[in-house]
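Job type: complex structure
Entries:
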Amino acid sequence: MHSKLNSLLKSDVRLEEGLTACMNCGICTAICPAAEYFEYDPRSIAVTVQSGNEEEIATLLESDTIWYCGQCMSCKTRCPRNNCPGLIISVLRKVSQETGAFVQSRMGRQQYLIVKNIGMNILNYGYCVHPTILMPENHPEQGPVWKWVYENMGEVYASVGANLNGDGPGAMRKISGADLGELHRIFKESGGLKFYETIEHFSKIKALELGFVNENGEADMEKYTQHLLQEI
Amino acid sequence: METKTKTRWSEHNKEIADDHFFYLRSCIRQNFNPAAEKIFLSILQKNLGKDIYDDPRHTTCTGIGYHADIVPFETLQTVIARQFSLMAEKGYKNCAVSCITSFGCYNEVLATWKQFPDEMAKAGENLRKATGREFEMPENLSHSCDIIYKFRKEIARQARYRLVHRETGEPLKIVDHIGCHYAKIFPEKSVGGSEYSRVLTGMIEAWGGESVDYPERRHCCGFGFRHYLIKNNRSYSISNSRKKFVSMEPYRPDAILTNCPGCNMFMDRWQYTLAQIEGKTYGGGTNGIPVLSHEELAGLVLGYDPWKDLGLQMHQVDVEPLLQKIGIVYDPAQKFAGVNGKYINEPLFTGCFNPHN
């Protein structure tokens, strides 16, 4: 796997956009909100990728480090060489998932949860987020007003002129079957579905490795999900 | 010196189309502040006499999934190509984008297609195979805040209210928060760039308020995509918002103005959550600092109803203190009314603390 990493990274045009020539100045780390919060240094990631050292890149792909970035892209604004470490991170994360390295880190493993949540919302509703799945018990930070909205959803959305689950235009309209069909086919044609399946495939292997097995000897993904939700 | 200044400013003045927009909605704004999108359409169509088309066929751009790294770049490009195909089919050339994440994605894809034409060809081929569609590039891509900014003076001329304290006559102090992907990725695609953003301050000043700078004005709200989406990671998100609230607290702002749907929601909800954790607010007494988006603020000064037109009852931090400062005439009894004006019921409490505890 290691011999392929550089070519996998370089096959993504975003690496060319995100990394031209890093001079190791560290302004990206100085401005980075994630570097302030985590033990995280986008400068060293840019340097590692620039070096092309396969061993170090392999270590990065299996680490929590690449999952710390919040994708705010503040680094893009300030880099004097017009690099974008946030974009380098996007490429590293893609390769980490394609090769299965992501399941070796706690934060990498969380990708399975995101596929099952945001990924399914996109395919099922045509939206990244849908109010019907924003259950107040899972979102205590949303507060009492969201709880009120959630419990009186139809009436509240209608009262402010939204078109929740309705035909035709408007906020939170139902995305028609024809349009969802086009979205599905785009995901199939452009590799989106395969990417979801790849994340699920490696997650199942990890679930088996961790002993989450059902009575049929298959990966118990419900238990694996609960494990990920508790894992800190 | 004057010439240099003018040159620098011209670098940060983007071209914003004047009319005939194809509207691209936001997943987050439709969820949490759906009326903001409705009022944007009303302002353009009714107040400004513009043509804007709301096509029910467009879907999410998948931007949240893209930045949470579950949606490949190739898929993002193809979904965006489909949006452009719908636009062209209806005869439009100018995009009006509601979401800041989407705005960044559209600009990233357009920049990629310019630099790497093979990527555009691949997206076109994917789209053709999947849907039989062809697409055209937009001539202009503006965020909805760009468009409100462009017409801010016309809105000021039609305004029923000004952002002035009705009792003291002093301008209201408003801090802004610009969504990161509005200007940090492509500063030249924004009004004022990322360091000296003018898009929201221009509105505040045009409508009579005082724009207040604060040290962490440019800091991220903390959404962080995967950091908020995963419950265990949300401390990253709230910590970043807290940094902003701490920074703005000494200036005692009357309101926070945002252009990003996600930021708007986070700046509102995290004030409540921080109050529950820390037992304090960062302004606005026990209520917190009201948070409004550019569409909502434009709607307020134009005299739209805060509840049925603007949906401000969907905010956790109560906007009524701000309405009262401006002197807006409204009916408190309609705040929690349903479609027929009949009272539904109401949240346990609004603002940051339960007054009954």
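Summary: Residues 61 and 96 of chain A are 5 Å apart (CA to CA). Residues 110-127+176-232 of chain A form one domain.
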